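WARN retry 2 of 3 for item q-0093 after timeout on previous attempt; input resubmitted unchanged.
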Amino acid sequence: MKSLGLYIHWPFCLSKCPYCDFNSHVREKVDHKRWKAALLRELESTAQEQEGRNLVSIFLGGGTPSLMEPDTVASLLEKAKSLFPTADTLEVTLEANPSTVEADRFKAFSAAGINRLSLGVQSLDDKALSFLGRRHSAKEALQALEIAATYFPRFSFDLIYARPEQTLASWKTELSEALGYAKDHLSLYQLTIEPQTVFATRFERGEKMIPEEDQAALLYETTEEIMRKAGLPPYEVSNYAAHGQECRHNLLYWNFEDYIGIGPGAHGRITQGKIKWTTYRYKVPETWLEAVEANGHGLQASQPLSALERLHELTLMGLRLTTGLEIERLSEETGLTVEEAYSSHSLDLLEKEGLLKRTTTHLIPTFDGRLRLNSLIAFLLKKSVPQDSRS
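OK item q-0093 returned
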């Protein structure tokens, strides 16, 4: 039975962070009863198209899904389990922010069925939190982590580093403190400037928002060294975990497996026969809500992915993993050998430069390759099969 993931998007936040390009919106009031009914309705209508699939993970993301009523979360999880066969090891993740009000709700979310928490700490330095536009303090973050450890068998938290003027010494201190609270997973993201964000506007005005390339590389290298020594090696470019504690839901994305997405702006990837479909929901919360109430779903578009599109997505996702891109999976999805997909010359050159390792089963980016991953991927895809070979 082919496995399946479920992503549920809650689009609302108390404020918009200046670095964030996610589909998140600030609203003074939210009709929780109406939103609960709409999410349940879209879940049921979407599940009817995927009968018999084995549900292995549920991820509630946003936005800030910890602003949802715990009763809404409980109802969605109960409905999902009634609609799909579920794995004994079903992973149910909720993203949360560590403000005091939300931390007090952790017990209720645990009772609702959440068994993994992903906490958006972002920094343990108050000055950095202010720069990042966060509403909580470092003290509140640490209190939230202590509560999370009480109620959730698995939890992770995010930190953003490579901030402007951040020194190597200060990052070592911050990461060391974080490891004192971590359990078996950490997500450590270098700050990036995303288009159409407040940070992008400031960057375009000439403000220094990110460190020089050499400093960013040193921070990344030091991060990996510290995390390996702590028993949390990298399994993806920005994610570190003890063996067996990787985020199963995100692995579905990175391994190009199937998942359905409900809620405003949620995407999905669904295989039917030999065709992989991509689905898009309406992004604007009110538009999505009205569509669900009128039609039973907020689906804006459903399109088949061409062989070239599948190749591009497999490459973008698979090479983020430290285990690399599975060659057999590449062949299954595109009908191409690895040499047909990228050209032997390109692969040989990347190997010679020490950026990529080829085995009989995988294409694996080296550490230097992960440092230059965007360039590595762009080079491979530039040499990929021509546009007219799509099917």
